[in-house]
Amino acid sequence: MISVSGLAKAYGGRTLFQNVTFRLTNGRRIALVGGNGVGKTTILEIVVGLREADTGDVSIQKDTRVGYLPQELLDSWEGSVLDEVMRGADHILEIQDKLRELEAELASGDPDVMERYGALQSQFEQLGGYQLEAEARSILGGLGFTTEDMDRKLAEMSGGWQMRAALARLLLQRPDVLVLDEPTNHLDVDSVLWLEQQLAAFPGALLFVSHDRDFIDAVAERVVEVARQTAAEYVGGFAEFVVLREERIRMAEAEAANQARKVAHVEAFIERFRYKATKARQVQSRIKTLEKLETIEVPEIEELKLNFSFPEPRRSSRVVVEIDNADIGYGDEAPVVTGANLVVERGQKVGLIGPNGAGKSTVLKAVLGELKPSTGSVTIGNNVDVAYFAQHQVDALDLSKTVEQEFRMKVGEQPKNRNYRTVLGSFGFSGDAVERRVADLSGGERTRLALAETMCNPVNLLILDEPTNHLDIPSCDVLEDALSVYPGTVLLVSHDRYLVRNTVESLVEVRDGKVTQYLDVEEHILNPQNVTASTSSRTSTQDSKSSQGPGANKAISRKEEKRREAEGRQAKSKRTKDLRKRVERLERQAMRAEDVVTALEQQLADPAAYEDPDEMKQLLATHETAKAKAADLVSEWEEAVERLDDAS
Fold first, then answer.
1. Whole-structure pTM value
2. Separation of alpha carbons 238 and 298, rounded Å
3. pLDDT 10s digits, 546-589
């Protein structure tokens, strides 16, 4: 359908990429991955015809319909949500308009009119015209819109909801090729799961950019990595890509080492016989061989590494946040959450998940003191210092300043024990990057800068609301590392299940007006089963309705068949997938817990720790608690390994 061959693009003397080559065919789903600024979005724009490559070709098969979702929308919305989404099926609505025009002429009994009407009606039925509005409502429901939302003016809604509507319009359009740039940025966990199912069953070709590793694993069957000004293609999802990339690097290292040995041998021959007349011909031959030799380059994995220590915050009370039987809402309106109970203790890292509109942000606003509960109480502990990150922090950056100027302005004077450039370097701004203007940064780079500003100050409660929007995978890794070593308490709202799974110790689910606290990171909460069930129910209902229509085809469509096949594959792999993730998570938690025990034992080995009896008792108690926690985690990990072995 689409063949991409040898693409290259440069800006201002800087080469973004060259020799980018891949093919999009029916059923092929390619995830484009790589760091911020490597040109992923540029490649998408070249594929859909919005930009031109410096060299290379994009060949699109005739009559191929391509649908594109950019990161930033330029559309102007005039109608309701439903009306704007229905515009995605203009080619079907045009047939509907023609049918209505012909209906007025049917009374004449003209055979030509009746023949044209019959042909158009058959085409309308084949395209699903009679079920079009029901399908549009089903897609909107899957993306989190309520029935009331569908009749609202889209222009009055936030940018995130407008982006969802644009995605819904594309899905209704059913193009031959879908090109999506960060489609999960504005979605909650439920909507991401729903979208995974839709795209896994999509019969056409799919090219998308995403930083969500779980999403890539569920949808992609190929990964194209853009790095070091070129692109490499790997078969499989994200997990397979990581393994195959490591194998490729090991092979390249072995080949490079072998080549180096041969070169050294040839150079030794040249040096030994350079001035010997009888060997002159052989020496010249080997010199020419070396000149023509193409050096094998070993690919490097470009990673950002956290290399600064967080400032030690002051010690807060044991209970940092306590919500007791609280009803929380806005003004005289009905409460968004009722009977909420939550206890967050010092040092805990807690993930808040749930669908958009369920009340996650409402709970955070109550914790921040921006909302007062109508009943019950929200209490913040003593000596609690709060830092809050949300997307409006990104919008508040001063675009006229350089990265370093903006950073210094927000975090104040530089303490003696901390280097601002080191902090910025950890968040991807090293060397000349600190002199770039904020206005010239990409969306992901601005998010990184705002995160650096938020996390640099010595606070003991860090609240993050969807921090991974617009971040690339290496930046997500830095955030994960930062949260893992952060010495305070964390409340994290994120739809990125990989980040949640790897950084928090417990979950709080906000759903249907209720707040439920879980003491562990349970996979069935991160991947709610009811999403799959409700989606299947909607699809089944729609299929049964469509089968009752006049002249409707009762056979299962190819799309439905592929959806069921995809669900079957997902169910088959899920038996061990959840266990594998649990084993990996428990192993990481156990290692971290043992590191804490080791650090405490080092403190206990210091004679100075015994000078203050009260501090010594506290240190001993903390050590015992940490030992017990580490032992429990090791036990859980061993049990999970046994279960995984049995399941495999």
1. 0.69
2. 21
3. 333 333 333 334 445 544 555 555 555 555 666 777 777 777 77
Q: What is the pLDDT of residues 443-490, one digit of tens each?
A: 778 888 988 888 887 889 999 998 888 788 888 888 888 888 888 899
Distances (CA, A) of 388 to 49, 368, 463, 465: 40, 8, 5, 8
Cα 366 to Cα 328: distance, rounded to the nearest angstrom: 7
Determine phi and psi for 512, rounding to 5 degrees.
55, 40
Q: How long is the chain?
A: 648
| CA torsion, ordered 236, 240, 242, 247, to nearest 10 deg | -100
CB 647 within 8 A of CB 583: no
CB 208 within 8 A of CB 76: no
Q: What angle do CA 477, 578, 356 make, to 5 degrees?
A: 65
226 close to 20: Cβ distance less than 8 angstroms: yes
d(CA 431, CA 629): 42
Residues 255, 248: Cα–Cα separation, whole Å: 10
Alpha helix (H) residue ranges in 143-273: 147-150, 159-173, 189-200, 213-219, 238-273
Strand order through the sheet with 205-209: 66-69, 177-181, 205-209, 29-33, 222-227, 230-235
- 228 is written with which tokens? 């070091």
Q: Is 606 helix (H, G, I), strand (E, B) or coil?
A: coil
The amino acid occupying position 573 is S
* Separation between Cα atoms, residue 543 and residue 559, nearest integer Å: 11
Tokens linked to 472 = 């690339």
Local structure of 572: helix, strand or coil: helix
User: Judging by DSSP bridges, how do beta strands 375-380 and 319-328 pair with one another?
Assistant: antiparallel
Structure tokens at 431: 């060397």
Asked if 253 and 298 touch (Cβ cutoff 8 Å), the reply is yes
Helix axes of 558-604 and 613-647: crossing angle, nearest 10 degrees: 150
What is the b/e burial string over 182-216, where b = at least 16 CB atoms within 10 angstroms of the residue's CB?
Answer: bbbbbbbbbbbbbbbbbbbbbebbbbbbbbbbbbb
